[in-house]
Structure prediction request, 326 residues.
Amino acid sequence: MSSRMQSPDASLSLASDAPDLETRRSFLGKSGLVLSGAAVALLAGRDVLAKGNRSAGSDVNVLNSALGAELEAIAAYQVGAESGLLQKPVLNLAVTFQGHHKEHADVLAKTIIKLGGQPVSAKEKYTFPVETLKTQSDVLRFAAMLEKGAVSAYLGAVPVFDNRDLAKAAASILGDEAMHWAILRNALGDAPVPAAFMS
Amino acid sequence: MSAAAVLAVVVGAAAAKGELTGDPKAGETIYARCFACHALAYNRTGPKHCGLLGRRAGSVAGFEYSTAMKRANWVWNQQTLDRFLADPLKTVPGTTMGYAGVKDRQERADLIAYIEQAGRSEVCRAR
Prediction:
């Protein structure tokens, strides 16, 4: 039976690495280096992204589905980080990956607003199978499962965007999720990249 | 013509082509593609899949469906699920399942066979 977990409060930080993450985010915010991949496409203010574009409605639906999944991933990593089962450096990885999902969610939400939509909010509670998470490996396998699913979800979203810039941005996020999946598999001792193609 | 009527026509045409036998073991692997949004036993970004076959579309209690899915007037079975999985956005315009679909017929048959088998599993019987 699954347990229902509280979603992470916005003020709740993963204490062990919060300063590093803040430093990193601050640096990225100033440099624009990493955000350029997704954010340039999503937030550059191109006319095609303006409110009222006739194709924007379906794109908003797709973006909101992605945002919902990202928000759940953030909550899942919070559960993992607070489980007490993760040891450094695996804990650091989890915190870093959670930070990526927060960045994805932030960009997705801003893009949805830009398109005239209403971004979904994080749920008050998420359901995770915490009763099956007994070891660090259990947590890693659960995270890897979510990341693999995210890769497939973005892969399935890329072709349905009416806007090619949004498709490009989704592909950018897909690449990040795929790296998470590979590194989690590597941490588990599995082949990090088990196949030449994703589906 | 209503969406349900269109689906019935299309499903009929698909059935005329011959049904494929699904392999639940292969379907379990394909089901990993759903893990970003779905689980068998509990609602996530998408609704739970325990009890899917035989359930009216848009009817899981406590799950917030799109208006489009709530208006979908059919019961999930092998045919309706096959059609939806092939192209969710075309089958139910306005669905929040922003996914291109599972384009391979055999993969869809395998996936549906797995969902059907999983529906009889301990995980689902406990629900």
The mean pLDDT of chain B is 88. Residues 4 and 73 of chain B are 6 Å apart (CA to CA). Chain B has one domain: 3-11+22-125. Residues 3-11+22-125 of chain B form a domain with the Cytochrome Bc1 Complex; Chain D, domain 2 fold (CATH 1.10.760.10).
